[in-house]
TrEMBL record:
<dbReference type="GO" id="GO:0070814">
    <property type="term" value="P:hydrogen sulfide biosynthetic process"/>
</dbReference>
<feature type="binding site">
    <location>
        <position position="201"/>
    </location>
    <ligand>
        <name>[4Fe-4S] cluster</name>
    </ligand>
</feature>
<dbReference type="GO" id="GO:0004604">
    <property type="term" value="F:phosphoadenylyl-sulfate reductase (thioredoxin) activity"/>
</dbReference>
<protein>
    <recommendedName>
        <fullName>Adenosine 5'-phosphosulfate reductase</fullName>
        <ecNumber>1.8.4.10</ecNumber>
    </recommendedName>
</protein>
<keyword id="KW-0560">Oxidoreductase</keyword>
<feature type="binding site">
    <location>
        <position position="118"/>
    </location>
    <ligand>
        <name>[4Fe-4S] cluster</name>
    </ligand>
</feature>
<keyword id="KW-0479">Metal-binding</keyword>
<dbReference type="InterPro" id="IPR011798">
    <property type="entry name" value="APS_reductase"/>
</dbReference>
<dbReference type="InterPro" id="IPR014729">
    <property type="entry name" value="Rossmann-like_a/b/a_fold"/>
</dbReference>
<dbReference type="InterPro" id="IPR002500">
    <property type="entry name" value="PAPS_reduct_dom"/>
</dbReference>
<dbReference type="GO" id="GO:0019344">
    <property type="term" value="P:cysteine biosynthetic process"/>
</dbReference>
<keyword id="KW-0411">Iron-sulfur</keyword>
<feature type="binding site">
    <location>
        <position position="204"/>
    </location>
    <ligand>
        <name>[4Fe-4S] cluster</name>
    </ligand>
</feature>
<feature type="domain" description="Phosphoadenosine phosphosulphate reductase">
    <location>
        <begin position="36"/>
        <end position="206"/>
    </location>
</feature>
<comment type="pathway">
    <text>Sulfur metabolism; hydrogen sulfide biosynthesis; sulfite from sulfate.</text>
</comment>
<dbReference type="GO" id="GO:0019379">
    <property type="term" value="P:sulfate assimilation, phosphoadenylyl sulfate reduction by phosphoadenylyl-sulfate reductase (thioredoxin)"/>
</dbReference>
<keyword id="KW-0408">Iron</keyword>
Length: 231
């Protein structure tokens, strides 16, 4: 399938899949693009999609970006999920430099002086490298998570990384996510029970207070609202 055919298919399917269930979107994605992967952050949305993938296409590749700065609860969630779904080889994708090398090159606590640069080193570059091996990827982004995601389609062309992007639960609410988790007994990060609705790196994530926006805990005090993976 050449680029023109892909773009035509994407435009058509974006309309057709708008009212499709997440399972239908995933089924179409893995059937149409066998060389596809899922980027898992082990947040609530992503553990839902792992569960769905195991029921629909258990051999689909799943990777996670190990920034070296995740909460211990995130790593523990990864390990618990690996036990629940023993057939999944969660592929670890690491930055090109260690935290120590980063500190030596850019100074201590780069996330405080230039959070965008830190995200670029520890997230965007590694993601660019891994996605270059695929023709499509699946994400857990939802439209109501942030204004930057409000116009996300179920299927779209990711111009930043140059491949097809599927957002199966783009239309879901937070309640939809947690209803699925409860109904299917899905393992989730315990930090969600401690006022962490959105969980990123430990240095740049804090608890969200009552009345705050769900993503207020990410890069608190900065204008930054995205790490750069979905912009």
């Amino acid at each position: 399938m050449n680029l023109f055919e892909k773009e035509a298919l994407i435009a058509q399917k974006a309309v057709e899949l708008e009212n499709a269930t997440p399972e239908e979107v995933i089924a179409f994605a893995v059937e149409t693009f066998p060389n596809i992967t899922f980027a898992c952050s082990f947040g609530a949305e992503d553990v839902v999609l792992v569960d769905m993938l195991q029921k629909i296409s258990p051999k689909t590749d799943i990777f996670y970006l190990d920034t070296d700065f995740h909460f211990k609860e995130t790593y523990e969630t990864r390990d618990r999920m690996a036990e629940r779904y023993p057939g999944i080889p969660f592929v670890e994708v690491k930055p090109e430099i260690t935290p120590e090398e980063q500190a030596a090159q850019f100074g201590e606590e780069l996330w405080k002086t230039d959070a965008n640069a830190c995200c670029n080193i520890r997230k965007v570059k590694p993601l660019t490298n891994i996605l270059s091996k695929y023709e499509a990827w699946i994400t857990g982004i939802r439209r109501d998570q942030a204004p930057t995601r409000a116009n996300s389609k179920k299927i779209e062309y990711d111009t930043k990384f140059g491949l097809v992007k599927f957002n199966p639960i783009a239309h879901w609410t937070t309640e939809d996510v947690w209803n699925y988790i409860r109904e299917n007994d899905v393992i989730y990060n315990p930090l969600h029970d401690q006022n962490y609705p959105s969980i990123g790196c430990e240095h740049c994530t804090r608890q969200v207070m009552p009345g705050e926006d769900p993503r207020a805990g990410r890069w608190s005090g900065q204008e930054k609202t995205e790490c750069g993976l979905h912009k």
